[in-house]
Amino acid sequence: MTNDVVIVGGGIVGLATAYQLIEKNPRLRITVIEKEDRVATHQTGHNSGVIHSGLYYKPGSLKATNCINGYHQLIQFCETHEVPYELCGKIVVATRENQLPILAGLHERGIQNKLDGIRKLTVEQMREIEPHVAGLAGLWVPQTGIIDYTVVCQKLEQLILEKGAKIHFNEKVTSVSTVHGISTVVTTKGSHETKLIINCAGLYSDKVAQLTESEEINLRITPFRGEYYELIPEKHHLVRNLIYPVPDPNFPFLGVHFTRMIQGGVEAGPNAVMAFGRESYKKTQVNWKELGETLAWPGFRKVALKYWQTGIGEFYRSFSKAAFTKALQELIPEIREEDLKPGGAGVRAQACDRTGGLLDDFAILENQQAINICNAPSPAATSSLSIGSTVSDLALKRF
Ligand SMILES: Cc1cc2nc3c(=O)[nH]c(=O)nc-3n(C[C@H](O)[C@H](O)[C@H](O)COP(=O)(O)OP(=O)(O)OC[C@H]3O[C@@H](n4cnc5c(N)ncnc54)[C@H](O)[C@@H]3O)c2cc1C
Fold this sequence. Notes:
This protein has ten helices and 20 strands. By secondary structure, it is of the alpha+beta class. Strand 19 and strand 20 (370-375) form a beta hairpin.
């Protein structure tokens, strides 16, 4: 027996889980297995870099509790380990009459979630904070911040290595077998015996979960690409910090926003288009096998039937810079197409169940040999230290 715990995935959730486990029990033998050559290569390294305050989430949900706890733990972590971050605050802007009740609901929710300093804004007050913004009313959320999550992961990597954990890069987990409570995790480079597997494989978390289950699991990851533009340097002055639209309650992850980045520059986006592969960062990248699997999943077909109009709108904005710009002009009318240059893209791992439900909350599924984190979309980067703490408590009960 060489390991107590094998963690699959060197994104922020896997690394934060390793960190919390080793903090709570330094004697545990932990190995993190990552298929890429460094940490934070997928969702964690391609996100908006926002430290979310916990404004949107249903009180008592895993998202709400872990985001709020994770927020405070992340700030503490950054202070202790000198990771740069900035609490610059954000405004949420209602641009249409029908968004006003939703904005009022968000204000209520922010109060229920005990956010400090959250307050309603008139148009004049919004313009004092963001002079170029347009809208009917706003909400000021001072706790929101910006950070580079790759830098957080590099620090976590350093700390867990110092405490004796191992990280194996360029090693992909391909199968798992379990005999008398001991699992053998087979990878493209060899195998690792362990008492417990913790699956933090992000876009492949359903696949890895399936390796640990005898029955077919009831969810699939559906990949949604989020594409960004960047403001050209001469237009950075149009955005001081973070400007968000009121979310559509049916699609809380839709709606492009403006984000000042901690490393400099301003991003606009992301949209949300179905990706034709789990790691398809470009429109032209198609993984036929993965696309076929997504289309074959009954839950995805139900989602597609229900929301095809929204999907087409997102595809249109993906191919038409003019349409993308129009969406941004709702928030800042002065923005012109020529003010935007192509930015990066990220792919969200969104779990979808068999009946066509897009899982809203984080999903942590346990079986005898594994703890599978099967739905960890935004704000999982903000929440990572809290998710890691929750999962490590579940793990420690087993030793
Ligand atoms: C466009 C976008 C914007 C976002 N913005 C924000 C934001 O501003 N704030 C926020 O809090 N959250 C945000 N999120 C969400 C956040 O980035 C993710 O929730 C978080 O990064 C998930 O981390 P993870 O470790 O679960 O997944 P990942 O970072 O994807 O890590 C999973 C790792 O597992 C590895 N892996 C997969 N399969 C295997 C295998 N078989 N063997 C070995 N390794 C494997 C992968 O290579 C990968 O490195 C955003 C996400 C996206 C996509």
